[in-house]
């Protein structure tokens, strides 16, 4: 007889064992290279009988494929949830940001405060052990600096566009980012040409953005330029992130937290120089005439 092994399917553990049961699954697959047998195994939670199947080399691949397919479906669902959550939070952020900019039109300060708030939340999470603190060095922060500059530029560009135009118009122009990715990746990053269907899929995006810009009666060119700069900056950030993330083994959350902290360090002094406390104080007084402090905060 060969060795008895337990394959992971769903929540089952991957380990060799003679006592085969799992409290989290209703199926245990036992691999034996010389025989096929069915073993009733008690479930520790429900005391029901579940079936352990001993596999041969012929059906071992089938079970492995089924397990891999289940894991792949779960991963796709998780990514879909992440995309949906990011999309919903992005819309909520832009709406509240637009409400603030309508009465307090200082995009540099607004962007700086967003980065500062995110930085404080993550620092507090690290301090309270809610999230594991990253292990970084000086070289990491220096390598992250160009990406942080591009990220901050993209945020400022989007905020400038929202301060001058509608939120919907800002989203339409920002949706042209895939076209910028394709163009800039080939020109500046030296990537290979994309397949023809990729270029064809960009035509509706470019056409929709052009139509939206042409039919926007109150389009502000400063805001439009801000959105286009944001598109270019986002492409630069994404390309730089590919290189930086390959070199450092940080989780996605900690990586973005470090990026946010560096953005707040870069952008806050710039906002102070360009806009300044005098403009902010005067703008605050003006904003209080139409909104309460609670609404502004």
From TrEMBL:
Sequence ranges assigned to domain Sugar phosphate transporter in this UniProt record: 77-287
SUPFAM superfamilies: Multidrug resistance efflux transporter EmrE
Coiled coil start-end: none
Protein keywords: Membrane, Transmembrane, Transmembrane helix
Transmembrane segments: 79-96, 108-127, 196-215, 221-241, 253-274
Taxonomic superkingdom: Eukaryota
Principal place of residence: membrane
Annotated Gene Ontology cellular component terms: membrane
Tagged with keyword Transmembrane helix: yes
Compartment annotation: Membrane
Entry annotated with the keyword Transmembrane: yes
Topological category with respect to the lipid bilayer: Multi-pass membrane protein
Cited InterPro entries: EmrE-like (IPR037185), Sugar_P_trans_dom (IPR004853), TPT_transporter (IPR050186)
Name of the protein described by the UniProt record: Sugar phosphate transporter domain-containing protein
UniProt source species: Taxus chinensis
């Amino acid at each position: 007889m060969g060795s008895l092994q337990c394959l992971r399917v769903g929540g089952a553990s991957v380990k060799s064992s003679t006592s085969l049961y799992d409290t989290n699954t209703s199926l245990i697959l036992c691999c034996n290279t010389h025989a096929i047998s069915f073993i009733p195994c008690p479930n520790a939670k429900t005391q029901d009988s579940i079936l352990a199947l001993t596999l041969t080399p012929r059906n071992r691949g089938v079970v492995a494929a089924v397990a891999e397919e289940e894991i792949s479906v779960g991963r796709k669902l998780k990514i879909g949830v992440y995309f949906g959550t990011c999309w919903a939070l992005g819309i909520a952020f832009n709406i509240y940001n637009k409400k603030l900019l309508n009465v307090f039109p200082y995009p540099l300060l607004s962007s700086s405060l967003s980065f500062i708030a995110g930085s404080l939340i993550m620092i507090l999470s690290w301090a309270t052990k809610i999230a594991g603190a990253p292990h970084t060095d000086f070289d990491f922060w220096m390598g992250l600096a160009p990406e942080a500059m591009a990220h901050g530029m993209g945020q400022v560009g989007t905020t400038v566009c929202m301060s001058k135009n509608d939120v919907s118009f800002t989203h339409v122009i920002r949706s042209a980012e895939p076209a910028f990715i394709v163009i800039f990746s080939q020109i500046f990053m030296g990537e290979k040409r994309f397949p023809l269907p990729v270029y064809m899929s960009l035509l509706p995006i470019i056409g929709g953005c052009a139509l939206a810009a042409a039919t926007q009666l109150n389009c502000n060119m400063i805001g439009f330029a801000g959105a286009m700069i944001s598109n270019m900056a986002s492409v630069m950030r994404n390309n730089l992130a590919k290189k930086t993330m390959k070199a450092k083994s940080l989780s996605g959350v900690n990586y973005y937290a470090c990026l946010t902290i560096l953005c707040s360090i870069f952008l806050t002094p710039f906002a102070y120089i360009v806009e300044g406390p005098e403009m902010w104080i005067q703008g605050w007084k003006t904003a209080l005439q139409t909104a309460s402090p609670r609404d502004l905060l």
